[in-house]
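Worked Example 4.2. Consider the chain below.
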Amino acid sequence: MKKLISYTLTALFVTIAISMASPDKDAMEAKEKAAWESFKDKRTDDFKKVVDKDIRCVYADGVSNLEKELADMKKWDMKSFTISNYDTFSDEKDVIVTTYTVKVEGTVDGKDASGTYNSGSVWKKEGNDWLAIFHTNIKQEAASR
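Applying the procedure from the previous section yields the following structure tokens:
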């Protein structure tokens, strides 16, 4: 009986420690929205606060880094975005993978880029901050919706 209680308490403490180590789903979704909002509003300083200086991104038209993201930000005229189906996964205390759908209304270089995108990010804890280190968007085809 003592062993059972000991094992139960150990499991409880491990669970508490793990849950305290990583932010909850709502906190990560707020960070994701902050990244999108700063990109939409072309606030480069705010964008840099939520993404790592070495971020890498993969899109249908190629691979990007922070410098290219900031240049592309100027080309976008994003009217709105809505995140749905947000989910997180982590088995590490300092890395979180997120997946979600985002509906975007806007243009890039004057061309319509509106649509629904399957998206994902990888976040890494740097000191006390969570920063995006990887991001991807893939536009859903009209037939697959």
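Helices lie at 2-21, 25-40, 44-50, 66-75. The longest helix spans residues 2-21. Compare this with Example 4.1 before moving on.
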